[in-house]
Design goal:
This protein is 20% helix and 36% strand. The protein is an alpha+beta fold. The protein folds into two domains: 147 residues, Roll (Hypothetical upf0131 protein ytfp); 134 residues, Gamma-glutamyl cyclotransferase-like (Hypothetical upf0131 protein ytfp). A five-stranded antiparallel sheet has the order 6-10-7-11-12, with no helix packed on it. A three-stranded antiparallel sheet has the order 1-3-2. A hairpin with a 4-residue loop joins strand 2 and strand 3. The longest helix has 13 residues. The radius of gyration is 20 Å and the shape is elongated.
């Protein structure tokens, strides 16, 4: 298996991995599974309670970690722990599948993970299992907010309910009506690291942490129970993550990812944005980093 493994549950814990003969898993990087939410949809006799699963939820995400599978023996041990039987998938507790995951720099890559085959309604996790996942999240310096929400059986929400925009969707621009129609809670000025390019009458953001001039834009806050990204994904020519293979996502002109945004003095947060993936051969850098400043020339 050449793909890395995306862990989001008890396997985030180094102690749990070693106790399950998974010492052949080597930590690579934190990662995010976009457009999914954590849930507890299967009962485990071992843990005496619900165990983790992922369910589709556009605009949400599941924090986790990428691990390298060092050898076939480790993969076999991992499949066994997850109750996945390659030759008899109909008997499996979990199914091994490929997903698109996001890296800390906003780029994306392929990984495999496990998803419950026959999902049940909410099953409360045992305290010991909850604490094992919490320990693994903290060990990898990841948020526990989604874990608490899932353990309380809260409906999956936008996570985060924030979008960074930098072009024609901003206030006063030609397509701001799309944002307005989505009933945003708040809009304020914001900045992000990257380079802005002039394309065919519209700008494109390319992430670049070394860029000296930040990109100016706006941070839009939505209701947490809303679904703004269905229409916005279509507008940005993004195929979406759910039910799409990595090749389909790569073919999109833009893709949606999570980046660090600064809004106000020393106030940074995580927000969704759309990053340009097309050719830059005929594109010119907008040196000011501001679409409005560029237009005013």
């Amino acid at each position: 298996m050449n793909l890395p493994y995306f862990a989001y549950g008890s396997n985030l814990s180094k102690k749990e991995r070693h106790s399950s003969d998974l010492s052949g898993l080597r930590l690579l990087s934190p990662a995010i599974l976009p457009d999914f939410a954590l849930a507890f949809t299967r009962y485990s006799k071992k843990w005496q309670g619900g165990v983790s699963d992922i369910v589709a939820r556009r605009g949400s995400h599941v924090p986790g970690a990428l691990l390298k599978v060092e050898d076939s023996k480790t993969l076999e041990a991992l499949d066994y722990k997850e109750g996945y039987f390659k030759n008899s998938p109909e008997k499996s507790a979990y199914i091994r599948k490929e997903y698109t995951v996001l890296l800390p720099d906003g780029s994306m890559t392929r990984a495999f993970s496990y998803e419950v085959r026959d999902k049940e309604s909410f099953i409360k996790p045992a305290e010991s299992y909850f604490n094992t996942i919490k320990s693994g999240l903290r060990e990898n310096r990841l948020s526990c907010e989604h874990l608490r929400a899932a353990a309380e059986n809260k409906q999956p929400e936008l996570y985060p309910a924030l979008l960074f925009i930098y072009g024609t969707l901003m206030r006063g621009e030609s397509h701001h009506y799309m944002i307005k129609n989505l009933s945003p809670v708040n809009i304020k000025e914001a900045l992000c690291r990257g380079r802005l390019y002039m394309l065919n009458g519209y700008p494109g953001l390319v992430l670049d942490n070394t860029a000296k001039c930040p990109v100016s834009g706006e941070l839009v806050e939505f209701q947490k129970d809303s679904d703004p990204f269905k229409s916005l994904d279509d507008y940005e020519d993004f195929s979406g993550f759910i039910g799409k293979d990595f090749a389909s996502v790569e073919e999109s002109l833009y893709y949606r990812t999570l980046i660090s945004v600064t809004a106000g003095e020393n106030c940074s947060c995580l927000a969704w944005t759309y990053v340009y993936r097309g050719s830059l051969k005929a594109a010119k850098v907008i040196s000011s980093g501001s679409w409005r400043t560029h237009k005013a020339r």
